[in-house]
């Protein structure tokens, strides 16, 4: 064993104060904390995103900052108010105070999107909204089993983020990301059939909503109802792919409510220490069911959490598709370069109740009015038609009519699918022989083995 | 080769990693330290840090990451330092991993393994037998080997299986038993019980460390002319219903023996299977010997009182023989 070679490995060999320079790409501190590369997140100035806990002499001066792509910073806050009615009975409600009359900002010019791409995102956002309107109608006709969840007001966040992924990248939606599914190539009928519990739904009736996946073609992991669990799972997808020689971006979402779970911390931290290409879109939509974000977390912006994980983050206006796309694109590029996870906080508001049964009476009306003026589709439409003149009024009308036609076709497919037979509840609990071939999706991992041979453990050798 | 129970598991994982580049290990302190019980000792030197990953202390992340990697066709083997800590990852296992194939058709070929069981004075958080938490989760295979031969054959079978397997290693057995284990490649099929001892008078259905308690009781009882048959379940989910029915049909009397708490324990399920498959063959009541309905206490006299003992088996066997 005389000729000892020192190799840097994926674990443990990492400087805490910036003095050493690990060589393995998955460890390289410079890359982890934003190497001088194109794009704004984790970029050349070195002041973006990740903690800069080191100075030239490693004295530990911290200069954190988080890029903010927004063109406005809404200034209001929500608090609980105790009131007495005429009879002296006490009532508690939420009240908003602050500047709720601020003018709507313009769309921020994208650094990356061209005309065709911008129109395509707009089209997906229209599909997203009109699919949900169709679902609402199906619900009113009694055709939906259970409730309907909406992404109203969040279409830019869902569609523009998923649009930034490459075909080989993976993603996992949460309940309000039904638009992301359309971007990734699922039909609107897939989601509609899920809601109607139909035999031809992707889960063949076994689950509803956006709870389905596809590991063959569309690289989508099915969500579960418990919040945050997808984050380590997506990190694991990136880990599996990296062992097969690929740096993939793996995107998933978490709300301002969901981020309160412990597994959210575990998942981001795991992705951070392993330097995996997680792109976590934090949907800061102000209401977690009926609980305002003020009662969910104390820090100013959820993007600040990234500092504690040692990863970069960025804040965007979630109703501005161009900002969402640009931040997502940069995060995806970082992931492809093997530079690790990125957190994107998209600020917006959930514009309906938690689900269709919930009238959201707890939301102060002025907040709805404020965010209604910032409708992501109206804003993008205005940008494409009036500001950029990439769409004429006529072309826009044509595009909307085409989307209506598609949704009607998809609705027909979904409605005409039969209900599953009762017996189809059985089977499929296990992967039986021949139902799936387990093989590496990208390539057989290249294995480098050390010279250490198998020998019995010391404890075992001492066995008497 | 004579191998301990621990060494057999270690060799099984080692061989699978040698033969299949998609197999990798992750867990707490499994790298340079080699794991709290040294099951992965020396692995990092042979297979490298990419395939032997020391993780943060975050069980949900460990299971989640193993599951995610399995979706890309890898075969992760995740270690729990003690199986008691699997509770920290319960949601991830129960709601994410176990349901995945049934709900959306994605196979999850991963192994969750670690030490469980009492008799080592580990206290309430290092001595539990939490296998029943997972038996009640359709979609998981739950494996509890009793011998070095089975431990090696079953860990290899679990790694090669297309489904999530929860593999309970009994820490009392780790270095206390040794037997001849063949050096050629073999597996022990999941879901198949084995007769650990043939007998005429009554059957003891059990698994893991309790197999050895039953064997010891059988030797002593043989001197009194009581001939025990011992069925080692090896896998507790899915249960080998046929083997359970067969031994009852043969001896007509049955004791079910396990370490974990009596109420809601495996014995209740096995009694129900006997009721369904071999009710007419019974010549006596089904007897349960199990842990108390409490947490498993720390102090040795208390722990021993909680756990099934040799005397319990002897006493109950005599009573049932005489019934």
Brief description of this entry?
With 464 residues, chain A is of the alpha/beta class. Chain A has helices spanning 29-32, 115-140, 155-163, 178-183, 188-195, 230-243, 262-274, 305-309, 321-336, 365-372, 376-387, 393-416, 458-461, and strands spanning 75-84, 90-99, 170-172, 250-255, 278-284, 287-288, 291-292, 313-317, 342-347.
For the sheet with most strands of chain B, the description reads: 7 strands, mixed
**Alpha-carbon distance between the two ends of chain A:** 30 Å
State the helicity of chain A in percent bands.
Answer: 25-40%
Rg result of chain B: 19 Å
Number of strands of chain B: 14
How do the SSEs of chain B run, as a string of H and E?
EHEHEHEHHEHEHEEEEHEEHEHEHH
- Report the portion of residues of chain A in β strands: 5-15%
CATH 4th-level superfamily of chain A:
Thiamin diphosphate (ThDP)-binding fold, Pyr/PP domains
Number of domains of chain A: 1
Describe the structure.
The complex is a heterodimer of chains A (464) and B (323). Chain A is an alpha/beta fold. Chain A has a single domain (75-421), classed as Rossmann fold, CATH 3.40.50.970. Chain A contains 13 helices and nine strands. Chain A has a five-stranded parallel beta sheet with strand order 3-4-5-9-8, with helices on both faces. In chain A, strands 1-2 form a two-stranded antiparallel sheet. In chain A, helix 2 crosses helix 3, helix 5 crosses helix 12 (393-416) and helix 6 (230-243) runs parallel beside helix 7 (262-274). Chain B is of the alpha/beta class and 323 residues long. Chain B folds into two domains: 2-180, Thiamin diphosphate (ThDP)-binding fold, Pyr/PP domains (Rossmann fold, 3-Layer(aba) Sandwich), CATH 3.40.50.970; 194-322, Rossmann fold (3-Layer(aba) Sandwich). The longest helix of chain B has 15 residues, at 5-19. At the A-B interface, helix 6, helix 7 and helix 13 of A face helix 1, helix 2, helix 3, helix 4 and helix 5 of B.
